[in-house]
Write a structure and sequence with these properties.
Layout lengths: L6 E7 L4 H5 L12 H14 L6 E5 L2 H11 L6 E4 L30 H18 L4 E6 L1 H12 L14 E6 L1 H25 L6 H5 L3
Parallel strand pairs: 1-4, 2-3, 2-4
Antiparallel strand pairs: 1-5
Helix pairs in contact: 2-3, 4-5, 4-6, 5-6
Length: 213
């Protein structure tokens, strides 16, 4: 593997928002950082200020853009947005109080895990193909970041530890490795989807909603 072609991705979850603090399911609503979230983003910016960063990308939702802009400021870089980094679409659960969702049956309009993993695969392939050999900060959300980490590690999403607000995890990969991981993740997602269909879709959603947003 040519190390010069490997892309380093600094995967970040956005800072705390008003609705995070209220335990509201944000999904693909815009969201707004609260003061704690802005301070969390400033702390990440300070930690990364002296590190080489070539590109900063973010979900096109406001809470991720706000976080990315704070991180980008010391580097004088623009923020490139992509819908691939958007949070999971929580459909009918969007706007609901999260503790009330445990035990509820999931509505049919929630974005499926397979669709979420597909977006994660597309994102990793896009970043590694577009920015080979670069250091890329990517600011996303709780569940899409979990999907990205699952594709990267070639494991089920349930095995990925939840990212906290403004947490940073480092991924080093290449276009070739990302493509290989994408194939493996697609096979894993298909098998998981078949198992879920066989078991039915009751939603004891505790694990999923606990790491949302």
């Amino acid at each position: 593997m040519d190390a010069a072609r490997e892309t380093t991705i600094l995967l970040v979850r956005h800072g705390e928002t008003v609705d995070n603090a209220r335990q509201i399911m944000q999904g693909q609503t815009q969201g707004e950082l609260n003061e704690r979230g802005r301070e969390q983003a400033r702390q990440v910016a300070e930690r990364l200020a002296e590190d080489p960063v070539d590109v900063i990308i973010a979900s096109d939702l406001r809470r991720a853009i706000q976080t990315a802009e704070i991180i980008a400021a010391p580097h004088g870089l623009p923020v490139v947005t992509t819908p691939l980094l958007r949070e999971r679409d929580w459909g009918g659960f969007t706007g609901r109080y999260i503790p009330e969702l445990r035990g509820e049956v999931w509505p049919d309009d929630i974005e499926s895990e397979e669709a979420l993993l597909t977006r994660a695969r597309q994102l990793l392939l896009h970043i590694t193909a577009t920015y080979p050999g670069k250091r890329v900060v990517a600011v996303g959300h709780g569940i899409i970041n979990k999907a990205i980490l699952a594709v990267y590690a070639q494991c089920p999403m349930r095995e990925v530890q939840r990212m906290m607000n403004a947490e940073v995890r480092v991924l080093t990969t290449s276009a070739e490795r990302a493509a290989s991981a994408a194939v493996t993740a697609a096979m894993t997602a298909t098998a998981a989807g078949m198992a879920a269909s066989a078991e039915g879709t009751s939603a004891t959603a505790a694990a999923a909603v606990a790491s949302a947003e």
